[in-house]
Structure formats: C-alpha cells, structure tokens
C-alpha cells in the first residue's frame, strides 16, 4: 500500500519502527527515505519499492526479533531444556492445574429436557481430541440422553474412538449440517464460530449452548463466558470451562483418552506389515514450516533408535508430506516404512496404537497418540506448549527457549532458532528415557 501511494503521488517513503521500552512506552525510529529509480512502469515501480521496504524491515527483524514478535510472547516458559508431562524427576511438569471454575449460569436442568430419552448433539468443526473430556462431562450430566457428534468427514472417525458417544454424523457442508441437526433437543457448540450457532438455530434446535463469541450470543439460549483462568492453559480446560459455563458439572481433571478398536488395531498392523517393535516419526505439521524440526534430524533419530531398540521405523504424515517421508527413507541407513498419505484417520489411529514410541512435531498425530497411551516425544518451536502440549503420563516435550518463542507464526522470518537449537542428541536422550520407562512399566 505504501509503495502504491508513493508511486501515484511521488511522495517519499520513510521506513519507521516502534521500539518497546522496558517502561512499557514506545520510541519511534525513522530511517532515511528509500531511494529508488522510477522506470515509468507503474506495476514494476511498486514492486521495486515494496522490495526495498521489505528488505529494510527484514534487517530490523534480524537485528532485534524480540521487538517484532513481542506480542506473541505470552505465557512463555522459564529457561529449561525438557518438559515432561509425567512429572518425572528433573523435568518440568506441563500439566497445568485444573483451574477453579465458578458456578455457570442457571438454566434448564438436564432432566428438564423434553422426551423420555432426550437427544443432544455436539457440533464440531475441527478434529480435536482435547474435546473428549468435554464429551465425557456431557455424558455424566446426561446419562440417559442420546448424544451424537456432528463433524466434518475427515475427522469423524476421531469421535468414534470416544466410547461415551452414541453416534457420529458426517456433515460435509453447512446445508447438510442444518439437515443433520434437525430433531435434536439441545446442541452444545464447541466451535466458537457464528456459523455453528446459525446452523443449529436454522435447524430449530430449542436449546443451543456455547461460548458467546463471534457475535453469536443472540442465537444461544445458554451463553458461557471464557474464564480468565483458562486463557493460556491447555485447550482441554477451555472446553471443560464451556461445559461448566452452561451450568453443568465437570470432572476435576479432563479425561482425554481414546480407545482403538480391535478392527482398527489389526488394520494398523497390516499397514505396518512386518513385526515390530515400531518407532513412529511424524515430521510434518499442517500449520506451516515453522513447526517442523529438520527432516534430516528425524532421519538421524530414526536410524539411531532402529539400532538401539532393534526396532523398525514408520514415517507418518499426509499426502502432502509424502515427498519428505520418501526423502527421509532414502537418507536413512535402515529401512523405513513410508505411510504418508496411505492412511485414513481410522487407519492412522490403528497404526499409532501399534507403536512403541512416536517422535513428532506439534501435530494431530501427537495428540491422538497421547490419547491412546502411546509414549510421545514432541518437539515444539513456535507454538505455545502450555496450550497444545500433549497430555499423558508417557509424554515428553523438547524445546529450545529463545526470546522470540512462542511466536505462533506459520513461517519463521529469521533463522528458525527455536527448532535449529534442538539437537539430535537431546531428542535421542529423551527418547531413550521414555523407552526405558516403558520397559520398566512392562516389567511390573
């Protein structure tokens, strides 16, 4: 925009930046006007001037990244190398205490819902295994109700692994979601979107409960507010607070476990093929490249564990990560089974259930494996571990404490120091610790 205005009016472009001082005030810095030679071609002039301005901003970011990413630095960890959700000696516990929740708004009690066996639906836009705790709280409050989940097709199988749910309806579009929601007595909206509330309102669901966010409060019959004490904590507590906020009782600690049925487990073993034990590597991350630990380091970890554990290695991921998986397999000295793009969600759950250990970035497979009780070693960089770290006795987290993390950016604008600082040796050390604990547990 600045370049377009400058080219049109002939005005100077002066780069400026704001410096955040320790006092909390800002100091403005101005550079000399950018120099550029007009070519007479408007689009080319705009591109050249934009490139010059971007280059100057990039210089500033590299000089003082903390000044540019400060807004993302909320809830950061204290300096440390490894975070262990199990609370093992010498590691920091990532299990946030269950925030105290007050009484939610009073409304119709569960037994006041119409019908001998009331029907309730939970509308879910995205696949999050952390909602399993909220679904179990819902079941405890409505033991006689039929509870169904409305979900996108690509995540529907995830909720079929929650035994407290009576059914899962796949809703590929908004219109089909409206049709699927008709006939229910109550809807609990776990997404924050306006569209999810509009969907059940159009379906004529009489009771519509959820967070009053995204301007949808008027469409809800029971509105919850996000408690301050759950902000920046695990998302499991966010959904737990929603259930409490609409006046229902919640468990002291969310139960996020998933169950892998025998059929899925057998299918997973068939996809793996040969007998294990199997070590899983999940080098991808849908959010962006900033969340990905270098693929060559994953390959090195896989080779080392294959030798030390007399194990086989499976590389997991989506079809978009197939090339990365095949590159890793070619680089490794030991054979690796590349399953990127070869598994449905149900297949993935079955494969994960057959693993001895999963080494992963902050990703969907990380959460699913943790919910299945599989040992998980997660490598974190730009994302906030307090919100999204895997929860479980056999989960560990490795991160490099740097001033600019957690920035929550898709692409790193500087040198990716949060991931580059995590060495193969550190990851191997923590993997050995998890595998040693697994042997001790088996012995008992």
Description:
The chain is 35% helix and 15% strand. It is α/β, with parallel strands linked by helices. It folds into 3 domains: 2-63, no CATH class; 82-96 and 260-443, Glycogen Phosphorylase B (Rossmann fold, 3-Layer(aba) Sandwich), CATH 3.40.50.2000; 110-245, Rossmann fold. The strands form 3 sheets. A 7-stranded mixed β-sheet has the order 3-15-14-13-10-11-12, sandwiched between helices. Helix 1 crosses helix 2 and helix 10 (295-308) packs parallel to helix 16. The longest helix is centred in the first third of the chain and has 22 residues, at 42-63.
Largest sheet: 7 strands, mixed
Q: How far is the first residue's CA from the last residue's CA?
A: 66 Å
Q: Considering the protein shown, what is the CATH homologous superfamily of the largest domain?
A: Glycogen Phosphorylase B
Instruction: Fill in the CATH topology of the largest domain.
Output: Rossmann fold
- Overall mean pLDDT score? 83
Identify the quaternary structure here: single chain
**Would you state the CATH class of the largest domain?**
Alpha Beta
Low-confidence stretches: 70-108, 439-444
Radius of gyration: 25 Å
Instruction: Give the neighbour order of strands across the main sheet.
Output: 3-15-14-13-10-11-12
Indicate the proportion of strand residues. 15-25%
Q: How many structural domains in the coordinates? A: 3
